[in-house]
Amino acid sequence: MAATSLTDGRSARAARTRDAVVEALLSLLDEGNFRPTARQVAERAGVSLRSVYVHFDDLEDLFSAAAHRHFERVRDLVQSIPGDGPLETRLDAFVRQRERIHEASAQVRKAAVLQEPFSPALAEVLSLARKLSHAEIELVFAPELGRRKGADRERLAVELEVVANASTWESLRLQHDLSAEDARGTVARILRALLRGA
Question: What is the pTM of this model?
Answer without folding.
Answer: 0.81
